[in-house]
Amino acid sequence: MSVPFPRTRSSILGYDVNEVDDFLRKARQAYDERDAADEHFVLTSDLVRHTAFSMQKGGYYAPAVDAALERLEDAFALRERDRAYQEAGDEAWYANARSRAGEILLRLERPEGQKFTKAGFLRVGYHPKDVDAFCTGLVEYFRSGADITTADVRTAVFRSRRGGYDEAQVDAVLDAVVDVMLAVR
Hints:
Layout: E1 13-15, H1 17-31, H2 45-49, E2 55-57, H3 62-88, H4 90-108, E3 124-126, H5 128-144, H6 150-154, E4 160-162, H7 167-183
Antiparallel strand pairs: 1-2, 3-4
Helix pairs in contact: 3-4, 4-7
Organism: Herbiconiux oxytropis
Protein name: DivIVA domain-containing protein
InterPro entries: CHP03543, DivIVA_domain
């Protein structure tokens, strides 16, 4: 039997092999729409984006699995978009995407240092200068089609800072950005 991903050395942590294999088996069934027997597992692009695996020594090499999950998320998002097109039509779909993009822009265009809620003086959050700089690029993407990809958004990394931006709120907005980007592909 072939191994779908490279594995880490036996002394290095990687993703739990059984969890990854089980998730991918279910994802394949859900994508092929043969999941009628397992009605409890409904897979969406959002669920793929938020999937996490336990770590184990000698597990699957995390960057390889993460890359596969990004491709899987894209495939489910494309299918979801196609279904929504059929149900709502192109105009309604794009109107919804424009509306969501407008809501995101309202947040991203807030003044520097005020785009997101602060984590609190004693809590660590994302460094506001890093996030604000990234948001400037996203505004350019939404305004003039700057060259930013879903991979850029998914892999954005920010320094930590005590009293920085609330990480959950920033992550939620970045997830919404990815949703809009996938919707208009």
